[in-house]
Amino acid sequence: MSTFLNIIGEKCPKCHQGQVFAKKGNIFLFQLPKMHTNCSHCNHKFEKEPGYFFGSMFVSYSLLVAEMVVFFLIAFQFIESFLTIVGLIAMLAVMWSTFNFRLSRMIWIYLLDGPKRRL
């Protein structure tokens, strides 16, 4: 449970105290999230090499598809027009883009760099 809270809280995967993102970003102000290069608490480097976060695009895609399916299933109960639902899903995708960007990078960091468990 603490790993889930650290991912949501955007904490460092090593010390669980430093913040990974300097700016959250805002899609309406055309601002992207900004990451720190190193943890302010333990100096852990977040991006190991160029292209390190390439895999987080697949995580982001999976999150977006899951959100769209859930929204479609809920909206289909109340809205009869398919085009209206598709338009609302497109708006949802744009509005949640910065959140999905941050969350997918955090999941990717914790998958590759997170706490190691012994078997």
Q: Explain this structure to me?
A:
The chain has helices at 2-8, 56-78, 82-95, 97-113, and strands spanning 21-23, 34-35. It has a two-stranded antiparallel ribbon. It has 119 residues and is mostly helical. It has four helices and two strands; from the N terminus they run H-E-E-H-H-H. The model has no long low-confidence stretch (mean pLDDT 88). The radius of gyration is 17 Å and the shape is elongated. The chain has one domain (2-113).
Fraction of helical residues: 40-55%
Uncertain spans: none
The biggest sheet amounts to:
2 strands, antiparallel
Structural shape: elongated
Strand residue percentage = under 5%
Mean pLDDT: 88
- The first-to-last residue Cα distance is 19 Å
Radius of gyration: 17 Å
What is the helix tally?
Answer: 4
Query: Which structural class do you get from the secondary structure elements?
Result: mainly alpha
**Secondary structure: number of strands:** 2
Question: How are the strands of the largest sheet arranged?
Answer: 1-2
Count of spatially separate domains: 1
Secondary-structure element series: HEEHHH
